[in-house]
Design brief:
Its EC number is 3.2.2.n1. This is Cytokinin riboside 5'-monophosphate phosphoribohydrolase. This protein has a domain of 199 residues: Rossmann fold. It is 45% helix and 15% strand. The chain is built from ten helices and ten strands. Helix 3 packs parallel to helix 4 and helix 3 packs parallel to helix 9. It binds the ligand C/C(=C\CNc1ncnc2c1ncn2[C@@H]1O[C@H](COP(=O)(O)O)[C@@H](O)[C@H]1O)CO.
């Protein structure tokens, strides 16, 4: 028989092997060792999950609604991606802090995946620069929670809902060295720009030593083999300088985010108390 309760239960949290589901605390054998994404995608699981999928749509919708609601008034923002495994004294972490700070200086809110490594670094930089530090966390089997530098955080169960938020609320991506997660985020954005689903969306790769091998492969294999065009490759810019990365973002956005921030703040103030104004950045709506 199909069960609908799971689709409306509150967000789950896990700490030291204990699972918290709203007011419910689960220990030992009661702890369910899978995430919502796993249960949605796992066709080998008990059939109740398959029958309850139609009801799950409500929870997916709620995740979009909560994300849109939390980020609607963010103003100009840039997403920073990179390895969850970068250690605090690594060059990547230090560059993440620097780029987060410079983006904040330039008037951008900084959006990350809210996790450790480069995400934490960029959030730390945003805080240091006096900017808005945003983390869009994801429920993972080895969940670590939002890093301490996230000031505005939203936790997602579904990767696809979370990914929509990055593209919808950022004006560009700065991508530091990373693994599968970083590649996923980079190539999703590349595909959206290539197919003109998103326009004027700078994609800056920070760290030429790491990225040049990938760019070479894209040019010498993918483009050479006719699987993408040289113009598609030109959508990516590689730099070693966080300052240059921010300039590239500003250049493609056509104006300084600080100007937009001020205009946006005025617009929001004029529209209070409704708090439901448009994005105010002059860009078309995404997602
Ligand atoms: C693996 C570790 C922690 C995992 N925690 C994460 N929290 C939030 N977001 C994450 C996490 N891991 C991956 N992501 C997303 O993918 C990108 C980084 O993945 P990569 O494979 O490390 O490149 C990142 O931008 C996130 O959006 C700690 O050991």
């Amino acid at each position: 028989m199909s069960t609908v309760t799971d689709d409306f239960e509150p967000q789950e949290k896990r700490q030291n092997g204990v699972r918290f589901r709203g007011p419910v605390v689960l220990r030992r054998g009661q702890v369910q060792e899978s995430t919502t994404d796993q249960r949605l995608l796992d066709t080998r699981g008990p059939t109740e999950w398959l029958h309850s999928d139609p009801w799950r749509v409500h929870r997916i919708t709620a995740e979009f609604v909560e994300g849109f609601g939390a980020l609607a008034e963010l103003g100009p923002a840039v997403a920073v991606f990179g390895s969850a495994r970068a250690l605090p004294d690594s060059p990547e972490y230090l560059q993440g802090v620097e780029v987060g700070r410079l983006l904040a200086d330039a008037g951008y809110a900084v959006i990350t995946g809210g996790g450790p490594g480069v995400m934490e670094a960029a959030n730390q930089g945003a805080v240091k620069g006096g900017g808005t530090s945003v983390g869009l966390g994801i429920e993972l089997p080895f969940e670590q929670g939002l890093n301490d530098y996230v000031d505005l955080g939203v936790n997602f169960r579904y990767f696809f809902a979370r990914k929509t938020m990055f593209v919808k609320y950022a004006q560009g991506f700065v991508v530091l060295p990373g693994g599968f997660g970083t590649m996923d985020e980079l190539f999703e954005a590349l595909t959206l720009v290539q197919t003109r689903k998103v326009t004027s969306f700078p994609l800056v790769l920070l760290g030429s030593a790491y990225w040049s091998g990938l760019v070479r492969w894209l040019r010498e294999s993918m483009v050479a083999d006719g699987k993408a065009s040289p113009a598609d490759l030109a959508l990516l810019t590689v730099t070693d300088s966080p300052a240059e990365a921010v300039r590239l973002i500003q250049g493609q956005n056509g104006h300084r985010a600080a100007d937009e921030s001020a205009a946006f703040a005025e617009k929001v103030a004029a529209e209070r108390p409704s708090h439901h104004g448009p994005r105010g950045d002059g860009r078309s709506e995404r997602g």
